[in-house]
Amino acid sequence: MAAVGLDIDTPSPVRAARDRAFREAVLTAYGYACVVCRVGLRLGNAPVGVEAAHIRWHASGGPDVITNGLCMCSLHHKLFDRGALTLSPDSERVWVSEQANGRNLERALGRFHGRKAARPNRADAVPSSVFVAWHHKEVFQGRPRD
Ligand SMILES: [Zn+2]
């Protein structure tokens, strides 16, 4: 459709199926709860505000594999994608950027610095140190808090 000036970005059925499979695998591995804050809200039976985050962004070549995924609530997913938080190189701890600030920072984010990140319920789902290293280099802002 580019010839007539239309460039409608419609996900392919294959891509949509891959997205669903990735999301389901990641959310299941973490029990539908955020690795940072453990929040896992539902409305009836439907999970709400719980998302499968790519550690290495899909847009930057990150694959849809479970070792590149983390279950996060919407807020922590956004903060992770903006580099306000990351995981330690062994993926066992939450690290918060020294650059994060703002109202109620401690309640929403700061208090999780240095705390254990939730672990997946499958050994083959543990985040890859390669993807975590990419996140440190390309996304995380500044240095971790002291
Ligand atoms: Zn969270």
Task: Please give a structural write-up.
The chain is α+β, with helices and mostly antiparallel strands. Helices cover 27% and strands 14% of the residues. The strands form three sheets. The protein has a two-stranded antiparallel ribbon with strand order 1-2. A hairpin with a 2-residue loop joins β1 and β2. The chain is globular and about 45 Å long. It starts with 12 loop residues before the first helix and ends in an 8-residue tail after the last helix. The model has no long low-confidence stretch (mean pLDDT 93). Bound molecules: zinc ion. Zinc ion is lined by residues 34, 36-37, 39, 72-73, 75-76.
**Total domain units:** 1
- Name the strands of the widest sheet in spatial order: 1-2
General form: globular
* SSE sequence, one letter per element: HEEEEHEEHH
Structure characteristics:
two-stranded antiparallel sheet; two-stranded antiparallel ribbon; binds zinc ion; single chain; 146 residues; alpha+beta
In short:
This protein has 146 residues and is α+β, with helices and mostly antiparallel strands.
Q: What topology emerges from the helices and strands here?
A:
Layout lengths: L12 H17 L12 E2 L2 E2 L2 E5 L14 E5 H9 L2 E3 L6 E3 L8 H4 L20 H10 L8
Antiparallel strand pairs: 1-2, 3-4, 5-6
The protein binds zinc ion.
